[in-house]
């Protein structure tokens, strides 16, 4: 039963509380329920809320951690989120939640060596503007990866100052993962095309 | 061939440049080489350096992203790194690298909703002191997880102000993953023992 978001536009088929209620209801019927998610259930996946609902209802459950797109999608584009010379910390945020962008502490995020923004397409102009306002270097390398790890993966490499404009020019479509930081340079060291819009890095990352 | 760190004490058997050279040398012999790592190769795994060495030597390679302990170990202790009500961003650092702790921007890290510190045991007193110096709330919930996901997993739950002392009292042994942030409270909502030293959350997270 599909309860998630449709690939192109349209919101969730079911609201989160409806999903929670459905999980409880099916489990109480005696069914074994698998709630399958893309990525990791505890990285902006609302998995914790589903666990809370199950626990409150007395339904036993297990959580299986996954490979998060926050790390795997940059990797598929030749970008490691950490690097001994370039980044000894990384942070992950989401650009998607309604009030998420405005509530985040951009002053702190502007100073983290690597910043990964999940679902970052629609809020990208606002995100890059806020980082620049808070003192991030406009020349910081930055990349936007659409359809990461898939055959139609597209990567735009630019700088923090130019990324939003370049992404709009290239017409990238959601889902887009954004990486901001010196680690974006590693693409070149790994033999990916150094700048501009590229196809997936052939042979660099195995397909799922 | 084991090239990594021994579980109890002792450094790497081989230095990183020796590992890089070994990968290249074996590949040039015509062998298909698998470099197997725990967690994700691009999260403090020095995977990017190995890829750079391979690319520089003209050796083709693939990278397979993994399940990072930065997310899976907190999950195994009942702690989601993000939560819609409690944390809309998380950051990951390592306490292990020689100069890592002193080079990090603790003022920024003190303001990220969830901070995960990998290999955080030996530097824990310094890390918590720096976060407190930079204005982090001493009552912030904090947890240290030893041997995460394994049968002998042990979890100490305390506050930012008391964690280092509690961990020392309980004699936790490396590897230890530290989580600092309001998300630590979710342990209780998920039915884990609310405070103090606990055994693994039975049934919460499947064993690998």
Biggest chain pair interface: A-B, 58 and 58 residues
* Amino- and carboxy-terminal Cα gap of chain A: 22 Å
Strand line-up in the sheet with most strands of chain A: 1-2-5-3-4-6
What is the strand content of chain A? 5-15%
Low-pLDDT regions of chain A: 194-203
Radius of gyration of chain A: 18 Å
What does this structure look like?
Two copies of one chain form a homodimer. With 208 residues, chain A is α+β, with helices and mostly antiparallel strands. In chain A, 29% of the residues lie in helices and 15% in strands. Chain A contains eight helices and six strands. Chain A has helices at residues 16-28, 47-56, 69-76, 100-103, 106-109, 124-133, 163-170, 186-189; strands spanning 89-94, 114-118, 141-146, 154-159, 176-180, 196-198. The first copy, chain A, has a six-stranded mixed sheet, with helices on both faces. The radius of gyration of chain A is 18 Å and the shape is elongated. Chain A starts with 15 loop residues before the first helix and ends in a 10-residue tail after the last strand. Residues 194-203 of chain A have low confidence and may be disordered. Chains A and B meet through helix 2, helix 3, strand 1 and helix 5 of A and helix 2, helix 3, strand 1 and helix 5 of B.
């Amino acid at each position: 039963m599909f309860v998630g978001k449709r690939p192109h536009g349209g919101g969730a088929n079911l609201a989160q509380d409806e999903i929670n209620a459905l999980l409880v209801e099916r489990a109480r019927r005696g069914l074994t329920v698998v709630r399958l998610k893309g990525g990791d259930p505890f990285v902006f996946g609302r998995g914790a809320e589903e666990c809370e609902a199950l626990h409150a209802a007395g339904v036993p459950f297990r959580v299986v951690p996954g490979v998060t797109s926050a790390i795997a999608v940059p990797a598929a584009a030749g970008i490691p989120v950490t690097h001994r010379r370039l980044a000894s910390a990384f942070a992950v945020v989401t650009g998607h939640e309604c009030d998420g962008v405005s509530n985040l502490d951009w002053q702190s995020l502007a100073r983290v060596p690597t910043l990964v923004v999940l679902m970052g397409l629609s809020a990208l102009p606002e995100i890059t503007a806020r980082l620049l306002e808070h003192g991030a270097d406009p020349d910081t390398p930055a990349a936007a990866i659409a359809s990461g790890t898939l055959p139609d993966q597209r990567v735009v490499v630019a700088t923090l100052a130019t990324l939003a404009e370049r992404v709009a020019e290239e017409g990238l479509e959601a889902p887009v993962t954004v990486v901001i930081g010196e680690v974006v340079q590693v693409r070149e060291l790994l033999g990916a095309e150094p700048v501009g819009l590229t196809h997936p890095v052939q042979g660099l990352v195995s397909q799922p």
